[in-house]
Amino acid sequence: MNILSTAMRWLAAAGRRCPFFPRFSPRLRGCQSLRGTSRVETLIGVLVLLGLGGIAAAILIKQSRYDRTVINPGLAAVEMADSTSGVAAASGVQEAAPPAVEIEGSSEVETRPAAAQKASVREGSDALQILEQVKLPERVKAVGQTEAFDATTLSDKIDGRAEFYLDLGFEQLVTRRFQLVGEPPCSFEAFLYRMSSPLAAFAAWSGQRRPDAKIDKEHPLSYSTANAFYFTRGDYYVELVSSSAAFGDKRETREFAEMLSAKLVGNASEPDVLALLPEEGRIAGSERLILKDAFGFAKLDKVILADFVVDGTTVTLFISPRATEAEAQELARAYHAFLVDEMGAEDGSKQVEQQPGMYVARSLGEVEVLTVCKKVLVGVHAAKQLEIAKGLVSRICGN
User: Fold this and answer.
1) Of the ranges 66-70, 183-187, 242-246, which is most confident?
2) Cis peptide before 184 (omega within 30 of 0)
3) Which three-class secondary structure state does DSSP give residue 398?
4) Per the CB 3.0–4.6 Å rule, which of 103, 318, 328, 339 could disulfide with 345?
5) What's the rounded Cα separation, in Å, for the pair 255 and 260?
6) What is the mean pLDDT of residues 206-213?
7) Could you tell me if residue 92 is inside a domain?
8) CA distance 99 to 106
9) In terms of domains, do 262 and 286 share one?
């Protein structure tokens, strides 16, 4: 409104000094000599002012007809409740409100109707039995029922993050609330994600790693934050999340994680990721995953990396499990050809002729060493010393 008033005052003042329409103004020549404006410029100015006036009028009309439920979403629930109670009163039926279920996340607590938490889940699910039968530390007790979610209902529990898990091969999520007895009492929720394979579980763990993660050297493929503990084992990715800022460092938290991890042994559809990575020399917390386009090569996907210390030198080992040994062999040849033919690396495979199936590429003082162990592509990336890289690859393959 202020813009429109100011524009109209300016327009009136300008009209007094210099009329807009020359045929009715004997002062036109004087105005043109002072301002140097033409009819076209004057007309454009008028049209601009009229446009601004129209916009201001539209805003005023829109503001006078706002929807209260948009400005204050709480009103929508109140109005809906009023209309529902009116219908119920007219029919003589009194409806009970659905019970609310408290859901604790990493930083917020929200409530949802209990009915929204139900999901169609296979009977006799391993994940359900694991959370129901896991042995609990002395000061930990279950305080809620086990809940399960499948691909169609996952977003009911973790709205906004469901797509991440579904893209990796999600099968089922089972959750249960527990309480750590003490002063003050500390409640937490266990999230047990069953994935399609150990690699998919590792991908979930790697992709969800928090920036404030504290690596737990005593528990491989695990880390803690102030209020949570995360780990992967077999086909499962596990989160233990609390609202307590000290939960991640509590002794009982690690005890519960150990007892739960023990129940996950033997449930993997394929060898555990840790079984593919040697323990000796591996730097805890360096394990990570590249889902696609590893090292710039489009065909190289699902690559697990970890850093190792060998003879005082840090080297990066990578592995990529494939469906068949033939697929792994073809991928090794294709990646080596990519390095030599497209990236300009020198073919150094003749230096390892005594080890059939091993490929070497040299570039800018670094070497890439590749081989295949059964169905797994194994390599060392950007190593400084060929002998160290060869030795680590051979150790992986048991040569």
Assistant:
1) 242-246
2) yes
3) coil
4) 339
5) 9
6) 88
7) no
8) 23
9) no
The tokens 């730097």 sit on which residue?
283
Cα 216 from Cα 130, distance rounded (Å): 23
Q: What pLDDT digit, counting tens, does each position of 355-383 carry? A: 788 999 999 999 999 999 989 999 999 99
3-class state of residue 122 by DSSP: coil
Residues 233 and 289 in one domain: no
Give the H/E segment covering residue 23.
Answer: none
**Whether residue 295 sits in one domain with residue 248:** no
Distance separating alpha carbons of residues 229 and 224, to the nearest angstrom: 4
Beta-strand ranges (E) seen in 53-185 are 100-104, 109-113, 140-142, 147-149, 170-180
pTM to 2 decimals?
0.62
Ranges of beta strands (E only) in the chain are: 100-104, 109-113, 140-142, 147-149, 170-180, 186-195, 214-215, 222-225, 228-233, 236-242, 288-290, 303-310, 313-321, 346-347, 359-363, 366-373, 376-383
Query: In percent, how much of the chain has pLDDT > 70?
Result: 73
Q: Which domain holds residue 374?
A: 277-397
Residue 87 falls inside a structural domain: no
Regarding whether 116 and 236 lie in a shared domain, the answer is: yes
Inside any domain, residue 75: no
Is residue 224 predicted with pLDDT exceeding 90? Answer: yes
- C-beta separation of 317 from 379 below 8 A: yes
Handedness of CA 354, 357, 362, 367 (dihedral sign): negative
CA-CA distance, 373 to 159, in Å (whole number)? 41
Q: What's the CA gap between 13 and 7, in Å, rounded?
A: 10
Q: Strand pairing partners for 268?
A: none
Structure tokens at 376: 């797994």
Whether residue 328 is found in the same domain as residue 217:
no
| CA separation for the pair 222, 301 (Å, rounded) | 23
Percent of the chain with pLDDT over 90: 47
261 shares a domain with 113: yes
Residues 132 and 46 in one domain: no
- When divided into structural domains, the chain yields a total of 3
Distance linking the first and last C-alpha atoms of the chain: 83
Give 339's Cβ-side CA count (13 Å radius): 26
Nearest to 335 by CA among 290, 366, 295: 295
Q: Is residue 206 part of a domain?
A: yes
